[in-house]
Amino acid sequence: MQYALLIYTAEPTEAISQEQIAAEMEGYNGFTERLRERGAMLGGEALDSTATATTVRVVDGRTITTDGPFAETKESLGGFSLVEAADLDEAIAYAAMIPGATHGCIEIRPVWDYAASAALEQPEAAAARN
After folding, report:
1. What domains are there in the chain, each with its CATH number?
2. Where residue 72 falls among pLDDT bands split at 50, 70, 90?
3. Nearest Cα residue to 103 out of 74, 124, 81
4. What angle in degrees, to the nearest 10, is found between the helix axes of 88-97 and 18-37?
5. Which pLDDT band, with edges at 50, 70 and 90, does 122 fall under?
6. CA 113 to CA 33: how far, in whole Å?
7. Residue 69: is its pLDDT beyond 70?
8. Residue 117 contacts by C-beta under 8 Å, 6 or more apart in sequence?
């Protein structure tokens, strides 16, 4: 099953040293390599700060954009990893390897399987037509 590991950490309020950035990146590179060795890493990216975000809503057919994130929070979504895991326990083990888990939190969300969902709906749709 696929899981998205959403990495939430506090946004920096002051400059971070190059040494701190390098140490954090080394941790993330190690995490990524461990999951690649297991064949579990499907993808992932770091995200820019919330200051660069744009929020989009469509109201009565009109597109409305707002600079910044949807909500003001202390922690923001900083990146994600998409992994293949046998079950939630394995996804939790992977999430615990993410360096951001030591100073933020990791939200685990199963990826919705559209194909399986469509297969489940087909018998119902057929019955409704009969």
Report:
1. 2-129 (3.30.70.1060)
2. low
3. 74
4. 150
5. low
6. 26
7. no
8. none
Owner of token pair 């040494």: 19
Question: How large is the average pLDDT for residues 52-57?
Answer: 87
What single-letter amino acid sits at 65? T
DSSP the chain: -EEEEEEEEEPPSS---HHHHHHHHHHHHHHHHHHHHTT-EEEEEE---GGG-EEEEEETTEEEEEES-SS--SEEEEEEEEEE-SSHHHHHHHHHHSGGGGTEEEEEEEPP-HHHHHHHHHHHHHHHH-
- Residue that is written with structure tokens 């696929």 in the block: 2
Q: How many residues does the chain have?
A: 130
CA distances from 94 to 8, 47, 100, 111 (A): 15, 19, 12, 15
